[in-house]
C-alpha cells in the first residue's frame, strides 16, 4: 500500500501547522522555509511512516524509493552529490514528534560520509582537519544511534588520543590526530558489529531512518511519555527530518548556537543564548567547551549579529511567541535549524505578555491566553534562591508551594510562643489537627511526616499561603525527646531547617529564599483579565490579615469566612470550651456573651479590610468535639497526673524514712530536702489539686459523649444551629452589629450570612427566622437598618435536589464542593486519599482525584441542576463556589460554563483564578463539557 500514501514532504511543501503528521521540528522547518528564512534544504518523513514501520518492524514498501527521489531533488537544489568524491552532500537525520521530548530521541549529523566522500570534502574545503573532524563525529553518532554502540567506547578512545598528543580540548587536535581518532572509531564499529562501517550512503540513511523510528518505542522514550502523561492523541510516532548539513566547524568564521528571542528567566526583551565558534551543534549542549554569551557576538561577528537580530525579529513576529531556536553559521552565513515556542518561568511569561502586547506583536486576548494560570503560583510565594544547589535531607509531598526556613518546633503551643517572640519557626508534626491552628499562624512553614497533599496540614497551609511539605515519611518524630530522626541525622528542637513546598524537599540549615513579588506587569495583566471575565473572583479568608492580603491579590470580596478559625486561637479556645462544656443554657449563654464582643471585633476587622466589597460569613460548621482535646490525650494526661500524685506521696515520706535509717546522711542533705519538699508542695498546689484532675475527668466525659461514629456526617453545621440556637444567634448578632458599627463609621459594607450543611428547606427557614429577629433587634439598638444577604451552602446532595425551594429563602448559593464531592461519591476524603484513590487514578478508574479536580461528570451535574432549579425560582439568585476547586483553572472553566457568578479560593490562588476566569470567558465558545 505504501506507494499510495505520501510519506515525505519537502520543507518547502509541508504544512507548517500539521505537527501531528510532521512533528514539531519538521512542521517548523517547513514553516520557516516557506516564510523565507534561511533553512538548509531538506524533507520530512512523516509520523505515519513511523507508525507503519512500528507495525511491521520494517520500513514501509516504497519508502526508500521515495527517499531516493527526494535526495536526488536535494542534489539538484544544492549542486552536491550524495556520496560524491567531489562535492559531497551530507545530511542530518533528526527525530521529532509533535510533543517536545528533550533528549529522548536522537539525531545523526554528517550522514553520507565514507572513504570517498571524505576525500571529496577535503578537496572541496581544502580543509583536511575539518573533514576528519566531521568524519569522526559522524562515525561516533552513527555508531551510537544506528548501531547501538555505547558512547563510552568512543569517548575512551578519544581521551586516549588527546592524552597521547597532550591536547586539552578537541579543538587542540591536529589533522593527523583526528585521523587517528577516526581510524580507531572504525575499528570500534568493526569490533562491535562484526562488519565494516557501511559505506553506501543510502544504506546509511536506511539504517538511520529505521533507528530513529525504532527509538520511539525505546524504553527511555516510553517512560518519558508515561511520566509526562503524553498520550497518543498528543503525540503518535516520530517524524524524521533529513536536512542538508551546514558546518559550524569550518573555522573561526563558523559557529553554532542556541538562542531565545527574549530572556526566558526574566522576560527581558533582549536576545539571549550561547554559541561556540568552530563547532557542531551537539557541542553546545554537550558542554565540551564553555560557550560564549550571544552578547559577545556583537563585537566578535558584528555582521552575523545583525543577521541574528533580524532572524529573531522575524521569528517573533511570525510566531507571535517567544522562540527558542538553533542556528549555525557556516563561513559567515547564518542558517536557522530549528525553532519552537520558548519555555519560560512565570515571571518571564507575564512580562513578555505585557511587553509583546504593548509592542503590538500580540493581541490582548493572546496575551491572556498564552499563560497557563497554574504557573502564576511560582510568583506568589517565596522561593528558594534560584542558584541554590544543596542536597536535601529528605523529600515528602509538595503540599503547599513556597520555601521557608526556621527553627524546628514540635507542637503548636511552642510554635505560638516562640513565633510571637519573633523567632522564625517551622512546625514539624506527625500530622496536624484543627486545634494546632494557632501554631500555623506563627509558623513560617509546616512539615508533617504523615498525610497527603490534601491532609489537614496541606489544606490549611495552602489556605494561608504558607509552604508545607506533607507525608515526609523518612522523618521519624520523637515527641518525648523533642527530636526527629532522618536517616543518620538527628534534628533537635531549635535546629534550623528549610522546606520547599513546591518540590517537597527538606534541607538542613537556612537556605536563602527570594521574596514573592507582585510585579507591575502582573498587575497590568490581571487588570486586563478582570476586564474580560464574567466570573468574579473572591477569596476564602478568616482573619483581617488574610482579608487584607486577599485584597492585595485582587480578590473582589470574601466568598468564605470560616468562623471556627476564629474560635481556635489560644485566647478564645478556653471560652469556646466553656461554652461546649456548659451544663445549662444559662451557663452556655454566659460563655457566648463573652464570645460575642470578640467575634464582633473579628468581623469589624474583616469588614474594614474589605470595605466596599461583599464578605460572606459562614456560621459555625465543624462538630463541637473538634474544639476539645481527644479522649486518648485526656486519658493519658489523667493517668500521668495520678501517677505524679502517687510519686509525690512517696517522696513526702522520704525525709522521715531517711532520718530513721541513716541520720548522718539525713543531716548532710537536710537543707536540700527541705527545699525539695517545699517545691513539691507548691507544685502540688498549683497542678495537682483535686479539681484539676476532676475537671479533666469532666471534659473526658463530655468528649466521650460528643464522640461520633461519622463526624463528617454528624452533629455539625446547621444541625448545631438548630439544636443550640444560642450559638448561631450569637454569631448572627456579631455579624450584624459589626456591620452596624462599621456603617456608623461611614464605611460601606456588604455582609452576607451563609448557613452550612443545609439539607432541608425547613432548616434554612428556621435559621432565617433567627436572622430576621436579630436583624430587627440590632436595628432597634443600633438605629441602623443593616443591608445584608442571606444564603445557603450547597454541599449536601439533597440540598441540590431541593434548590428550587431553597431559592425562595436563600438569596445566594455557594457550592461547598469538598463536602459535595464526598457526598456524591460516598467517599470519606481522608480514607479515600490514603487508601484507594491512588489506585483508582493509576488504573484509570478515575482520571483525577475528584478532591483536587472538580468531577464535572458527577458533582458538576448536580451543580448544574441546582443552578437551573434555583434560577427558575429566582432569576437574580447569586451562585458561587467555595472550596478548593474554586482555584483550579479547569474547574473554573466549568463554573463559567454553568453560569456561576463567582468563584472563591484561597488568597494566594486569587491571581490564578482571575486569569483562569478570563480564559474561561475567552474560550467559552470552544468549551465542551466532558461526557
Ligand atoms: P535535538 O532535538 O536534540 O535538538 P536536533 O535534531 O535539533 O536534535 O540536532 C542536534 C544538533 O545538531 C542541534 O544543535 C542542531 O542545530 C544540529 N544540527 C541538526 N541538523 C543540522 C544540520 N543539517 N546542519 C548543522 N547542524 C545541524
Ligand atoms: Mg534541536
Ligand atoms: Mg463544607
UniProtKB/TrEMBL annotation:
Q: What class of enzyme is it?
A: transferase
- Among its keywords, does the record have Kinase? yes
* Gene Ontology molecular-function annotations: ATP binding; kinase activity; metal ion binding; pyruvate, phosphate dikinase activity
Q: Where is the PEP-utilising enzyme mobile domain?
A: 423-504
Which keywords describe this protein according to UniProt? ATP-binding, Kinase, Magnesium, Metal-binding, Nucleotide-binding, Pyruvate, Transferase
Instruction: State the SUPFAM superfamilies in the record.
Output: Glutathione synthetase ATP-binding domain-like, Phosphoenolpyruvate/pyruvate domain, Phosphohistidine domain
Domain Pyruvate phosphate dikinase AMP/ATP-binding, chain residue ranges per copy: 55-294
Q: Which cofactor is essential here? A: Mg(2+)
Q: Determine the domain of life of the protein's source.
A: Bacteria
User: Which reaction is recorded as catalysed by this protein?
Assistant: pyruvate + phosphate + ATP = phosphoenolpyruvate + AMP + diphosphate + H(+)
Name this polypeptide is given: Pyruvate, phosphate dikinase
Amino acid at each position: 500500500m505504501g506507494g499510495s500514501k505520501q510519506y515525505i514532504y519537502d520543507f518547502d511543501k509541508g504544512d507548517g501547522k500539521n505537527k501531528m503528521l510532521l512533528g514539531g521540528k519538521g512542521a517548523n522547518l517547513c514553516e520557516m522555509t516557506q516564510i523565507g528564512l534561511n533553512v538548509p534544504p531538506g524533507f520530512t518523513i512523516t509520523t505515519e511512516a513511523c507508525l507503519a514501520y512500528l507495525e511491521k518492524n520494517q520500513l514501509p514498501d516504497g519508502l526508500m524509493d521515495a527517499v531516493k527521489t527526494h535526495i536526488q531533488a536535494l542534489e539538484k537544489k544544492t549542486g552536491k552529490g550524495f556520496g560524491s568524491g567531489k562535492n559531497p552532500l551530507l545530511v542530518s537525520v533528526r527525530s521529532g514528534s509533535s510533543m517536545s521530548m528533550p533528549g529522548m530521541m536522537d539525531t545523526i549529523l554528517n550522514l553520507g560520509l565514507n572513504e570517498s566522500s571524505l576525500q571529496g570534502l577535503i578537496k572541496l574545503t581544502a580543509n583536511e582537519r575539518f573533514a576528519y573532524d566531521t568524519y569522526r563525529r559522524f562515525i561516533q553518532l552513527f555508531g551510537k544511534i544506528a548501531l547501538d554502540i555505547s558512547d563510552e567506547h568512543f569517548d575512551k578512545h578519544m581521551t586516549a588520543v588527546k592524552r597521547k598528543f597532550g591536547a586539552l580540548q578537541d579543538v587542540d587536535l591536529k589533522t593527523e590526530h583526528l585521523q587517528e581518532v577516526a581510524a580507531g572509531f572504525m575499528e570500534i564499529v568493526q569490533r562491535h558489529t562484526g562488519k565494516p562501517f557501511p559505506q553506501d550512503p543510502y544504506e546509511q540513511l536506511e539504517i538511520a531512518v529505521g533507528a530513529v523510528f525504532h527509538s520511539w518505542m525505546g524504553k527511555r522514550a516510553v517512560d518519558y511519555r508515561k511520566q509526562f502523561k503524553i498520550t497518543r492523541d498528543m503525540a503518535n510516532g516520530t517524524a524524521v527530518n533529513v536536512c542538508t548539513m551546514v558546518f559550524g566547524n569550518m573555522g573561526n568564521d563558523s559557529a553554532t548556537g542556541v538562542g531565545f528571542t527574549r530572556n526566558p528567566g526574566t522576560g527581558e526583551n533582549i536576545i539571549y543564548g550561547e554559541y561556540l565558534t568552530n563547532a557542531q551543534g551537539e557541542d553546545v549542549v554537550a558542554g565540551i567547551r564553555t560557550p560564549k554569551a550571544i552578547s559577545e557576538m556583537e563585537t566578535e561577528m558584528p555582521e552575523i549579529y545583525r543577521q541574528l537580530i533580524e532572524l529573531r525579529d522575524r521569528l517573533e513576529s511570525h510566531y507571535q511567541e517567544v522562540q527558542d531556536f538553533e542556528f549555525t553559521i557556516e563561513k559567515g552565513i547564518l542558517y536557522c535549524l530549528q525553532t519552537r515556542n520558548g519555555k519560560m518561568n512565570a515571571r518571564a511569561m507575564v512580562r513578555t505578555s505585557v511587553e509583546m502586547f504593548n509592542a503590538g506583536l500580540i493581541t490582548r486576548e493572546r496575551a491572556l491566553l498564552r499563560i497557563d494560570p497554574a504557573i502564576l503560583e511560582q510568583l506568589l510565594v517565596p522561593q528558594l534562591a534560584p542558584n541554590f544547589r544543596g542536597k536535601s535531607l529528605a523529600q515528602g509531598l509538595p503540599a503547599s508551594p513556597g520555601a521557608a526556613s526556621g527553627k524546628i518546633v514540635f507542637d503548636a503551643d511552642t510554635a505560638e510562643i516562640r513565633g510571637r517572640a519573633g523567632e522564625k519557626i517551622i512546625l514539624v508534626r506527625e500530622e496536624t489537627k484543627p486545634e494546632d491552628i494557632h501554631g500555623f499562624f506563627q509558623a513560617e512553614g509546616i512539615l508533617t511526616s504523615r498525610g497527603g497533599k490534601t491532609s489537614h496540614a496541606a489544606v490549611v497551609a495552602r489556605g494561608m499561603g504558607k509552604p508545607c511539605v506533607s507525608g515526609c515519611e523518612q522523618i521519624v518524630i520523637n515527641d518525648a525527646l523533642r527530636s526527629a530522626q532522618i536517616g543518620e541525622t538527628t534534628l533537635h528542637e531549635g535546629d534550623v531547617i528549610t522546606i520547599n513546598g513546591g518540590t517537597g524537599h527538606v534541607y538542613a540549615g537556612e537556605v536563602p529564599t527570594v521574596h514573592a513579588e507582585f510585579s507591575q506587569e502582573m498587575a497590568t495583566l490581571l487588570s486586563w483579565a478582570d476586564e474580560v471575565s464574567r466570573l468574579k473572583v473572591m477569596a476564602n479568608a478568616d482573619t483581617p490579615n488574610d482579608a487584607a492580603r486577599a485584597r492585595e491579590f485582587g480578590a473582589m470580596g470574601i466568598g468564605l469566612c470560616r468562623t471556627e478559625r476564629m474560635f481556635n486561637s489560644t485566647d478564645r479556645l478556653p471560652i469556646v470550651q466553656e461554652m461546649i462544656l456548659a451544663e445549662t443554657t444559662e451557663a452556655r449563654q454566659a460563655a457566648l456573651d463573652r464570645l460575642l464582643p470578640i467575634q464582633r471585633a473579628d468581623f469589624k476587622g474583616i469588614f474594614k479590610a474589605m470595605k466596599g466589597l461583599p464578605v460572606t460569613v459562614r456560621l459555625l460548621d465543624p462538630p463541637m468535639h473538634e474544639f476539645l482535646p481527644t479522649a486518648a490525650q485526656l486519658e493519658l494526661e489523667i493517668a500521668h497526673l495520678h501517677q505524679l500524685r502517687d510519686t509525690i506521696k512517696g517522696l513526702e515520706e522520704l525525709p522521715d524514712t531517711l532520718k530513721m535509717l541513716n541520720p548522718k546522711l539525713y543531716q548532710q542533705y537536710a537543707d536540700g530536702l527541705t527545699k525539695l519538699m517545699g517545691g513539691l508542695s507548691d507544685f502540688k498546689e498549683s497542678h495537682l489539686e483535686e479539681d484539676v484532675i476532676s475537671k479533666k475527668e469532666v471534659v473526658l466525659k463530655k468528649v466521650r459523649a460528643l464522640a461520633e461514629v461519622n463526624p463528617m456526617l454528624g452533629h455539625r453545621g446547621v444541625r448545631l444551629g438548630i439544636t443550640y440556637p444560642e450559638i448561631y444567634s450569637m454569631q448572627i448578632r456579631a455579624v450584624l452589629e459589626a456591620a452596624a458599627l462599621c456603617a456608623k463609621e461611614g464605611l460601606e459594607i456588604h455582609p452576607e450570612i451563609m448557613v452550612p450543611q443545609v439539607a432541608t428547606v425547613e432548616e434554612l427557614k428556621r435559621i432565617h427566622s433567627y436572622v430576621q429577629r436579630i436583624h430587627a433587634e440590632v436595628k432597634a439598638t443600633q438605629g441602623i437598618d443593616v443591608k445584608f444577604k442571606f444564603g445557603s451552602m450547597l454541599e449536601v446532595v439533597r440540598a441540590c435536589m431541593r434548590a428550587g425551594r431553597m431559592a425562595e429563602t436563600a438569596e445566594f448559593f455557594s457550592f461547598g464542593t469538598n463536602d459535595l464531592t464526598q457526598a456524591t461519591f460516598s467517599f470519606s476524603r481522608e480514607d479515600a486519599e490514603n487508601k484507594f484513590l491512588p489506585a483508582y487514578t493509576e488504573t484509570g478508574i478515575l482520571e483525577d482525584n475528584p478532591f483536587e479536580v472538580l468531577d464535572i461528570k458527577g458533582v458538576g451535574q448536580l451543580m448544574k441542576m441546582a443552578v437551573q432549579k434555583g434560577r427558575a425560582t429566582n432569576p437574580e439568585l447569586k451562585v458561587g463556589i467555595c472550596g478548593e476547586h474554586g482555584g483550579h483553572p479547569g474547574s473554573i472553566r466549568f463554573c463559567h460554563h454553568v453560569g456561576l457568578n463567582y468563584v472563591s479560593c484561597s488568597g494566594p490562588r486569587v491571581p490564578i483564578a482571575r486569569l483562569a476566569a478570563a480564559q474561561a470567558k475567552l474560550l467559552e465558545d470552544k468549551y465542551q463539557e466532558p461526557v
